[in-house]
Amino acid sequence: PTTGGSPQVILGPDDGMIEPRALALDTVRRHIYWADVALDAIGRATFDGTEVAYFALDDGAATFVVPRPGA
Length: 71
Known about the structure:
Layout: E1 20-26, E2 31-36, E3 41-46, E4 53-56
Antiparallel strand pairs: 1-2, 2-3, 3-4
């Protein structure tokens, strides 16, 4: 949990990131999403930086939707 203390790096090159852009937060499921333009992929991790996963994009452009809880 965030306590308002000093900033912490939770994701970076060691997690496979090359050129992350377009950050989005899912505060319900506590996930961070980003587009990595070098990988042509969407990245996802939990708020603490664990459970990192990448979803490849076929042509570098796609719509990515996070479903609502219970949907």
